[in-house]
Amino acid sequence: MSRATGLVRCLSRCTIKPYLGISKQAQLTHQQERKRKNLQQYIQKPQAYNLTPWDISLISAHYNQVGLLFAKPTSSLSISSVDNAGDQHRYSPGTLVDQLKHSLSRTLAHFLPLSGRFVTSKNDDQTSLSISIKCNDDSSQGVDFIHAAAPVTLYDILSPRYIPPIVRSFFASYDDGTMLMVKHDGNRACGWLFIGCSINHAVVDGMSFWHFFNAWAEICRAKENSDEFISRPAILERWFLKEHQKEVDNDEHQDTNSIIHLPFSHPDEFIHRYPPPPLVEKIFHFSAQSMSQLKEQANNDALVWRSLARARGFHAEQVTNCEICINDRKRLSPPLSDDYFGCYINIVTGKTKTWDLLSQNLGKAALILHEAIADHTDETIRSWLHDWKKEPKIFQLGSHYDNCSLIIGGSPKFNPYGCDFGWGKPLAVRSGWTNKFSGTVRMNPGQVGGGSVDLEIYLSPEAMSALESDEEFMDAHHEEIM
């Protein structure tokens, strides 16, 4: 597989810009006229979006890298003209790649921040910086679209015990903007198609990532019938907490010009990347029945916390942390809509000594996590925002986590398997190497649905071997053959 990693061929690379020709009549007749009015105003009067504390706190995080694996469509359309024309980088009308480009351009019109660029500005005091997403310069707008081929089969991707290293090459490296990579096996007889996205974490969280992905699939699936409409229009305005604000402002009174002054003179002072550690990655499938039984006892997070503490050999007196990414939209009062596009996540932490975690039953671990989540209220969020404005803090993933930390991201409530581009539901969700360390866990709904869950777990080789021998964990785990 390592040899195959170096054989990935880039067939073409281009910039896809948002199609801004959405008709005025379509905007006026949309079922959610109020939200569509926001898009109309944006198209007529482009602007720069100032980042919120949520956005800025993750500005140093690596890009979100997640994608979907599909079986090659059975339609008569080829993936691209490259299938028939060797290395010619010309695409004939009606290929799947052309459909993806066409629909992506129209989708970006609904999610314009994705095609913008970060702008860092020195403030008048010359001692602080402000960051915004600039979307009003057409020459710099657009996302990088890469079409590539890899000499591996579906069996090579899905059958190994651990996620094969070549999957990491399914994602483009990044520099500034949003990247999208389409890969396939270059074999007309049988094969696969992978659509991977790399998007800055300060622009989207998991909720917004899949909001965009599902909208793109919806427009692609509908072809000519859905250039103007999507079922969930995005709310692009960033939400800011005003002093003494008691409720969420509506769109007409929202303070979209809030500017946060960061106490830095250069981005190098707060943007730090870290190299990926040597990890093995495995997806554990939990059936709907397993999840139901876990909920009766405690919950899945508690099981993972205990199991990984054992597998990683924590000392009995060592304090271990279980950190859970949580969506702040619904915890504000009144809540924000899930259609608010951006990054609105926070982290809640449960902590205890290892001996306390392992010597008692699963319910004790679940109680610790339940209390941590329950304490994350509207009041807590507003207090965090208030304190953050006084003393901004940039989350540094590489230095933040020690060997006794565990972080659980993703959510079984996301809808990756609803992303039908017109050739059926995905076979699998896969992610890149970014934002990973030993003890990272990503949750996704299971491909079979019905309440099943997939856990994508990253550990050192020794810890992974120990986890696979953990009786409590493996009793709950249900292996599904794809």
UniProtKB/TrEMBL annotation:
<keyword id="KW-0808">Transferase</keyword>
<dbReference type="InterPro" id="IPR023213">
    <property type="entry name" value="CAT-like_dom_sf"/>
</dbReference>
<dbReference type="InterPro" id="IPR051283">
    <property type="entry name" value="Sec_Metabolite_Acyltrans"/>
</dbReference>
<dbReference type="Pfam" id="PF02458">
    <property type="entry name" value="Transferase"/>
</dbReference>
<dbReference type="GO" id="GO:0016740">
    <property type="term" value="F:transferase activity"/>
</dbReference>
<protein>
    <recommendedName>
        <fullName>HXXXD-type acyl-transferase family protein</fullName>
    </recommendedName>
</protein>
